[in-house]
Write a structure and sequence with these properties.
Layout (H helix, E strand, L loop, with lengths): L7 E4 L5 H12 L3 E6 L2 H13 L4 E5 L5 H14 L5 E4 L21 H23 L3 E6 L20 H22 L5 E7 L7 H5 L8 H13 L10 E3 L2 E3 L8 H15 L1 H4 L1
Parallel strand pairs: 1-2, 1-4, 2-3, 4-5, 5-6, 6-7
Antiparallel strand pairs: 7-8
Length: about 280
Amino acid sequence: MKTLKGKTVLVTGSTDGVGRRVAERLGGAGARVLVHGRDRTRGERVAAEIRAGGSAAEFLAADLAALAEVRRLAGEIARTTDRLDILINNAGVGSGGSGGHRQTSADGHELRFAVNYLAGFLLTYLLLPLIKDSAPARIVNVSSAGQHAIDFDDVMLTQDYSGTRAYCQSKLAQIKFTIDLARELDGTGVTVNALHPATYMDTHMVRAGGHTPISSVDEGAEAILNLAASEALAGRSGAYFNGLRESRALAQAYDAQARRRLKEISLELTGFSAAA
């Protein structure tokens, strides 16, 4: 990975798992790293370790299950940071297994849709002015190979709920957002791509979901860093990657009408036009 000295990077969900490893690697490459998470003790520890290695790092606490917290986080970054070269939307909630009970966010939205998708949708749009001013810049959406078509008659899964379906629906939504945003940003010098970093990485999220890890955190981090900093991918935008290779997402991701419906719903749920 090339040196990132002078670059500022925000990695959401970077106090543990693959997000933490990505933050550490970015710090090792000389970037100023904005570490994000809910747990201040863990977050301050990660930031301190990056600083001990010679790079700048700060911890920003926010619970992305509340859209007010997303807005507060974006506002804090805009006030204290004069550039944002790379945004990595990594924070997320796992499937919790195929069963389980339906949970809701602070705003009353289905929890996985809210945290895995809506939070990143809103955060990205709120930070876009800063990102555009830092171009060439990159946005990376950490999605999954686990994808499920969205039922627009029941986006919040009030019927036939399962944690796995909720998780997979939220991950497809991220990819749809990536494709649309890439088109919006064409010509700005800002690129956006999504990826499935690795299958069942050895993380707390995977184990809590009842899965046996089969990939390492390092493997997933390498794939995320490839999209975030590889010179070979400069200018590439609107793509979905499986690990290090460009791949194909579920068919609904390429349905323009489905993407329009998702964006309309997302703008309404986040109130972005009013917030902007």
